[in-house]
Amino acid sequence: MKLYLSSYKLGNKIEELKKWITEHNNKICLIPNSRDVYPDGERKTAGIQVDAEELTDLGFDVTILSLKDYFNKKEELVKRLEEFNAFYAIGGNTFTLRQAMYLSGFDEYLKSLENNPNYLYAGYSAGICVMSKDLHGLVKCDEPNINPYGIDTIWEGLGYFDYTILPHYKSDHKETKLIDECVEYCNEHNIKYRTLRDGDVILGNTSRNIDQDIERE
User: Going by CATH, does the domain composed of 2-215 fall within 2.30.30.100?
Assistant: First the structure.
């Protein structure tokens, strides 16, 4: 499975996404569940729609699919996802997204695609932080104990990186100062991490050990 992991929004390597459309197809499934930590309303809906429109502007045919609709319905989710070979997880709360992936079985579904290069996982912020092995290094920027689903916090990420991904580092973003606190926390607790500035994109493939160079503008 190919990876396109951006610190914020689509990042500076959008030609790779356009290439994906050319070589595969333009259907993509947008996963919005990192935003479930926020109250429902026009602001939340509008924010998700902005992310969808950015993909549409690139040429994608976007379907917004909430994993909440498939909690404890793993077989139904798999059937629903069979029409897609590209997924895009947006920013929000990493711990909330991780729980949604677990409750729906989306994490297991991604594991089943690891060795298939005809699938794409893309995302930004929380959507990429969840790919780390351990999520403890994010406690200064994402609240781990706000849980809209009624289960315990899941501290284990999806495990594709042995370091914690810290986006928005030294960037013009409202969470930049919180990321500085995450860096300090990781240093104090001997947690391996990797910072990304907004615009940075990690390009990779889950069928091998991941240690890509960061693509910068």
Answer: no
